[in-house]
Structures
1.
Amino acid sequence: MRELFYSEAIKEAMVQEMESDDKVFLIGEDVGVYGGAFGLTFGMIDQFGPKRVVDTPISEQAIVGIGIGAALMGMKPIIEIMFSDFILLAMEQIANQAAKIRYMFGGKACVPIVIRTPGGGGTGAAAQHSQSIEALLFHIPGLKIIMPSTPYDAKGLFFSAMKDPNPVIMFEHKLLYKKIKGNVPIERYEIPLGKADIKRVGKDITIVATSYMVHKALTVADKLSFEGIEVEVIDPMTIKPLDIETIINSVKKTNRVVLVEEACYSGGFTSFLASEIASKAFDYLDSPIIRVASLDTPIPYSIVLENEVIPSEDKIEKAIKGLLI
Amino acid sequence: MENIELKIYKEMLRKMLLIRLFEEQVDQLYMKGEVHGTGHLYIGMEATAVGSILALKKEDVITSTHRGHGHCIAKGADPKLMMAELLGKRTGYCKGKGGSMHIADINIGILGANGIVGGGIAIATGAAFAIKEMATGQVVLCFFGDGAINQGVFHESINMASIWNLPIIYLVENNKYGMGFPVSKAVNIEKLSKRACAYGIKGITIDGNDVVGVYKAIKEIITDVRSCKGPILVECETYRWKGHSRMDPERYRTKEEVEQWKKKCPILRFKKYLMDNKIISLSEIEKIENEAKNIINEALEFAKNSPFPNPQEAIEDVYA
């Protein structure tokens, strides 16, 4: 099977989706002529034209609102927010409108939008271009959130997201774009939302990790394997709705769990996950639930500081070993 | 422009009366403590909603505001389902889940009232975007107020509509006050329609209490909007008789000012116009009024006799 970069897989998914349904369009800042801030959408405007690959002024709130309005009229917008930090500019339309319209209207409407946005740090983009703020959206009822970590997952989850009649936010990770390659089938395939993936089977300890942290966890797991420690790595893929069952089953098997995310420690998604595991698998735990997350700081600029704040493989390894003493 | 047909005149009267009677009934219910929450009444503004919406085609769509009962009734929403929604009943438009500020009926082109000031403007713009993409020939009529015109999302939306020539009329209902902040203190310009020139589009200010004038003004511009010659900003000058919501102590305006505007009641004015011009007789007017009263009475009966939702329904409809 051929290998694609994470960014290529996402582009292929969008292209195939747009080829199959002319109600689908892509809208965002510099998605067209510029080719995307990360080069992801390069060439799409040549294939589909400016009416379906729509460049916009810098107006995040209205860009999302326009997507909502178009969705109410039967179109299927892919809304690209250039950096996930900018989602904050559109929070009103996402949280008060998209997330709530179905419920407020008594189930008599739906908002089938997909918002794609790259988040995460490690590129020296500093505080306002490096955040992992999925927890803010996680908290809002009515949204679905996916965080694919591999090219294969990204393409398959994207198709499911497009099929889903609810607003879905796809948090990509900048470091994954041109760093991670993987096997990706050329045909369309769907990975269902709300289903976690066991990325590595193990018996000694469970790690649940999201997005780029999945790769750090896998690297640590490979290293610890040489020391006789077999780590099970679970990637939720969809954090909302969460496949808690797969995670609980793993904890029941290993009895120890470390949760790893790039978001800040206070109130990151894994704080919810920790409470879920504590209440649903209490009798199976042989040690406290450990969370590894970014320090409670904005992401700093200097690489020395950035590496201190964002969870390192070292920190993950120490967390695991700390539980096994 | 051609003469207005008799049936349109009758519909104007009928709809303005329906709105007035509905809102007065709702006001009564609030005063008796029979409604959970608050309401934002459209009394005094009927001519703006009715004149503009009657100038639309049936397939055109609107977005509304927190003060949306007038828009919804003008567009053809069922007063029974609206009243039931206000009383939080299962039979309401939104199964009791939305309440006054979130009434919607997508099937008849009401893309929703909205509890966020300006919350519907980008949505309306997106609807117009889709209409142009799919070439359906519809128009979007986007209602918002003199408060919303200062929200950033208004400027983002109208700018995009202007660069893409979207088929949308942005109708600002200038009733002189946001919640309690007078528009004269909120903006540095005389007429809100002047903002249109910042976007290279046409802007007009009209008397929002003249239902015939509003109808004619929209009719005059709508063909160009429909053929995607560009969006237009229409400012309707009007006034709300009641406070912003039910809890409004109205410290920002005088009783005299309110009384002055009541004398300019759009419904009385229209009735006089109809009779002076011998368009509709007094007895016919009374007949229309009685029919409207019956409809509102039936709506109240329906709402009062309807069941509340089952508590278990609270968790339904979060996701499709």
2.
Amino acid sequence: MILLVGRIDDDPMAMVRAALAQARADLLFFDHRNVFTSEIEWSLSASDEECTVTVGDTVLDMSAVDVAYVRGSNFFDYDEMRGEPVDGPLAVRAAHFEAQLYAWLDSSDAVIINRSGPSAANNSKPYQLELIQRAGFLVPETFISNDADAVREFLAENPDTVYKSISGVRSIVRKLEDRQRGFIDDVNWCPTCFQRVVGGTNYRAHVLDDRVLALRIESDQLDYRYGRTTMVATELPPDVADRCRRLTAMLGLWFSGIDLMRTQRDDWYCFEVNPSPGYSYFEMVSGQPISAALAQFMMEAEARVRAVRPRTKAERYNMSPSGDALTET
Amino acid sequence: MFLVLSNVANESAQQLVEMFPPGAASLVTASNLNVSFKAGICFGDFSASKLTIGGVRISAGEISGVISSIAYFLPQEFYYIEPADREYVCAEVSAFFVYFLSQLRCKKLNPSTTKTLTGLGLHRVEWMKAVRDVGVPVQSARLRNGQPVDVGTRHRGPLMRATCIGGTIVEEGIPDRVGEHLHVLSRAFSMPYLCADFATARDGEYLLADLWSVPDVTVPANREAMVRFMQA
């Protein structure tokens, strides 16, 4: 069975769910909004392990999960949390449910897209950059600092520089102009990443295990997510595609979104890897069928897992035909 | 230079710093970061990166050891930052240290992961399965929404706590079998610090009941063992 964990109003989740439903996949959707009311129970003994998730009257035996696609969401943003203390019983319950669910998925033998440990490399950009370099990509000259004087020294030698966040928190990549130079002292309060500008053409590669779906991107903005942007499906040179596969494997991911830059000298730089790609944006702009490819990958992975797994508990889950929380599609 | 990473409320961390020779160790906390720790890290040339720690300018390669008593920084520790920005600054500082600690080639109690500044960073569900997989017996457990559910007492006597620091068991009188289990886990997880509670089964076997991988510096014997490990 394929388990989807996320929100239906999240485009990447909605699109792959539709693609799986169209392909008549054995599918179950766990709406993340049910973290406040659902129950997860797990037990371990010397010889056995069991785990069930209960939503209303519906009980899912988690051993039936062969493949899971997980799109994280912040329950503090939900209506249920309005006016609730962040450390109150509702939040604590939801946090415990979520932590136990993800822990079970992370430690299961199912194909999990993607596990939280490998995904966490994206929370430290320089940490991830280290792996990007090891996979054979060039990376821009990078300086990370909370020392304003040291930053000024770097900028004196590298005047053409962008600045961005170090963590996985989304930030708009901006070129450092005269206006920002007046605020350099602020880095004394918060470490910041500075990177020498690399000119060229942006590419985005979505990697699904061995399959690479690439786009060439033209934009009027340095950060193409915030500009007038066109995207065209393309093939990467074989050695570049191989590096993308290697990098995805090194990070322990099944599915990744890789940001690349091809220079005029045909050098390939990699800026970062997204372990939970918001691929819907790229599919909607380019028409590239990424959701269909993701659905196909999940169904093939499910068949592979089923072929090798003992199925003693596979059919022991109850389905709620009309439940909107844990729904059979 | 030895670094002790902790939070400002943990007075034992300062005591640990003072157990090293004068000037040999420095305390770094989120609350004093803006004055205690300055760094300029050149990606690709880490060991040459310049640091100012406790007012002393050193290169990253001169750090001989790190002891961290915290797995995470908390936004409220950045009291000197505007409240609306604390979460962002906390995420940035955490991301910085995950990278910084991963690059240091020195003794670490304990190594960091992509999720934590020190220790395993695993949920009970994960470490219990991992412990069982390396052949150390675990006590049966049941968790409902993160909370333990009573599975009935299947052991005799009180739990026994044992701490392994750099291959040495800190407590005296710990049975050899318990020490062996801890050494197996320390090697399997590549964590030189582990603290565990063991239950005694009716057949005399010792079953792992709980496990901690974030160094506890509040225990005096632990601090002494940590200093010995770092200076060995």
3.
Amino acid sequence: MGPLYGRGICMGILKKMVIKYKDKLKKGYKKRAIKTKRIANKKMLNKKGIFFTLISITIMAVFIFVFTPQADVSLEKDTQSIKVRISSIDNYVSDLEDRYFIDVLRSGTHKTILSLVYYIEAKALEGEGSFLTDLNSAFSGVIQYGKINGEFIDDITEPIAGRRIMEGNTLDAKIKEIKDKAAETLKVDTIVTIKPGSIKVSQKTPWEMESEMEIDFTVKSSDNIAEWSKQSIIIRAATGIKGFNDPYYLVNTNGAYKNPIAISTVEFDQWSIDKVREHIENGKYIHWKESDAPSFLMRFTNTISPSSCCGIESFVNPNKLELAQAQRDQIESYMDYLFWTHKFHTDCPAEPVVYDIIGLWGTPSPPDFNDFKLDIEHLFKYNIGPTDAEKTACP
Amino acid sequence: MLGLLVLIVGVFLITSSYVKAPQPIQVGLLSGDLLNFLSNTKIKDLNNPYAGIGGELQTRGYITEIDNSLLQQIGEFYEKDKIESPLPSMPPPPQTEPYLDVAEKFVQNVLGGAVPLQYRYEVWINGALLYPKTLTLEHTKSKDNTKLLLTSKKIIFGIIDKKTGDIWGPYTAEVFVWES
């Protein structure tokens, strides 16, 4: 082996080493490239994650914005509360129109008529017994303000009634009460105007009065959400007359003979002498169809004329006349509206045209009603036959 | 992962707030409905062995006007309790049971079945608590701790004496409702 040969071997080794080195170098580059590629891939993935997160956040933001119930509920809550408020006020307005004004008018009518009867009684007891000149005017003043002829009626009636009937019970007082309560409870302003001259009382049936008034009213919510306005509303209320003292008896006896209204239940074809006796005793009132008698309200003003719809009549009890220090035996028909109008009064020696009801004499013992007399028309009406009646003779 | 987490949390938040949202409306409706039921139902239309037509209270003379609404009847019990001596034209007091005790039982009978168990309620007339008449600690706690307490109000009045037409009221009737 020569030096050249040895040189050749060395060269070969060197070449191999170079090749190896080159390979190594290549491998190193590759690894680095892979590493770099991996890093690049990772970076790409991270970028996608951020993007995905951003999208998620955006989607959720949109969802929360669109579907969050808070906005809806607050709107719904507001609508709901306004709806509830309007409904409450609406109920109040209906209650006012359909019930409160009617109840107040009915109650006021009862108290006013009671006060007017006491007023007549008080005046009669003072010896100034007189009828009312204008019932509607007196009624209107008392029911609305509690006043008659400029005076508080309670000042006149309290000594005999034992209480102040109209105080706190006038229409004005009752309207103020509900107005204050509504302002406190519902935060509304209620304005009620009773039209002047619209308060009236009348009768369409014998045993009931009908009172009426015309009103305008406005209900306004304090927050100006809504306003209710009703114009020219006619309020009517029916009130029974049972139990009131008849003013006609009071005035004619200076307040000494009180005859409270009690209603007869006898049918027109069921009358007999016994029923007449029972009615004299109890002072019951009878209504006949197409009656010639005045109605209850007409008795306040001494309007003794026929009221075909509502006329009522009662028998004057001679015993009670005596108690009232009036002459018990008079030549009169003892039907109340005829007795004090003296329609059948006759001064003897002219022949009287009334009849003693002898069927009432002696039974029960002692004889109760032997001064009681009736005119011929009422003898027939009350089915009193010839055996029970005898023409009154001059004493 | 983070995006998924955001989605899950978001959906949870939205659904949980949806679950709670209807509560105020329901309580509000309930208090209004109770008051409407009391004021629109008449004794004569109520089929209840204690408070309804022909029921115990009518037989015992506590209920005299079957045209009264339930709320008016409660108000009438309150008014009658206030009157020391009855008016001359009024029928004598029927029994010895105080009117306010009767009012409490009356409310319990007419509303007991109408209010879901998870709710509590009170009935007040003119500032006086009629139901429940005596407050338990549990009741007071529940009222104090509730997040939402709603009330409905109505003005009530009625006739105390049919013959004279005397009226009672006007009073404020209030119903409080809350979830216990």
4.
Amino acid sequence: MKLISIKSLGVVASFALGCSLSTLAVAQSATNIAPPPPPPAVSTMPAKPAADMEAVLDAHAALGAKPIETLTPVAARIQPSAADATKALMRAKRISTAPDPAVVTQDIAYGGDAMQYARIYKPAAPRGNGPMPVVVYYHGGGFVIADVNTYDAAPRLLSKQLGAIVVSVEYRHAPEFRFPAQHDDAASAYRWVLQNAASWGGDPARIALAGESAGGNLAVATAIYARDHRLMLPLHILAVYPIANSSKTLPSRVDSANAKPLNAAMLDWFGYYYTRTTTDLMDPRLNLVKADLRGLPPATIVNAQIDPLRSDGETLAQMMRAAGDTVEQRTFPGVTHEFFGMAKVVRGAANANDYAVQRLQAAFSAR
Amino acid sequence: MKIYALLAATAFVASPAIAQVMSAPEYVATAGASDLYERTSAQTVLETTANPAIRSFATMMLRAHQQSTDMVKAAAMQAHVPVDPPMLTPTQDEMITELRSETGPARDAAYVAQQRAAHGQALTIQKAYAASGTVAPLQVAAAKIVPIVQMHIAMLMKM
């Protein structure tokens, strides 16, 4: 007993020293926190993906992707992404993986932390002389992994197809910064865009919010924030497979528990690192289905059939409609989580991109 | 005794789970692969680029990522950690193949896009080992490499 106490004191001493020397070092050591124990196994096997979707999943495995839910955050962040797999398949099919030069980018800080910056996508040759519509886009990665570099496909495509300025927002990641740091950054980036869009050639009266996965959650949560803080509301919300429902018994949590590239164990893993306590999962900013959803702008929710988050989008659409909002929700068959950035090699992704572009286009031109 | 127990409890609250940093050989291999990818991709873009900014950045990367490899190697030898010749991961190998598949300005653009992602990952590794690595000389080397990688990221943000 005595030995254990002395050893503990040693840990305390070095921890305290670390704190006094550098709070950054302590924040960074959070990325080495051991993963949580795995949830009980579910035997249900997911539906079979379409052949072109399956090819991306095979390419992902060929790159040596390890199960995220077994890793520390630092190890998870250096794993090949679904975007890496998509590029590998494009290269094999002799499709260029270089960024489309029809769109140019610029990185600009919106806050004091190194992660508080945005990548601004602009058409290289704008369509007219007038100000362009603006899309504020939040990337995915469960608030823990991935960044604006990983999620380049969707913002680049939206900028090109819509002739719009797309502001892809980087934000502080967990576990260095836990919930609600990501929501705070998403909101301050939205405020910053409202103030600065005109200086980039954007039309501050035509702004939409968009995001994928954790970023889909941020898009909806930021619209709620805008309503509550009497900011100008976006014209439209595009939420692609958002995190929106903390229930563990949703149909997709079971039928797609073992799906790829996202499985139910990974959802727990992300939550373990981004929440301060498990009660955060009941916060309406994460559990959007229990938020006050009244008076939100029209929304488009895109889901993938083979995705543990499918029911999140479906139930969010139901709750938004019940609150009186205008919502269209579509679940695309034969595709998985992350498919939205795979249009060059997955037919279902091209269909979903076309759908999202058409919905945003309609919202911008109605104005 | 009571004070010890109290302090231990405080530490547990502040640091909720036991740190499981990558092992010293894992760190050496990961950092070595990252540097090898940096040098190989720089050589690949230098073969074709006509862009002076890219040429200057890639030339700097060749030098800087040899220096960081030398620093980690020296620290590893000091700590008696074995250093194997670095090997690209399958993803890094694929990224080099992708660069080689592009020509002209497309290769330049692919290089910059890859650099942004790769430097973000390099920073993650170096910061994590600097914060809680278990072999002191390697921890010191990682801490020295962090600001160099941050400088590269700042340069990339302007490209």
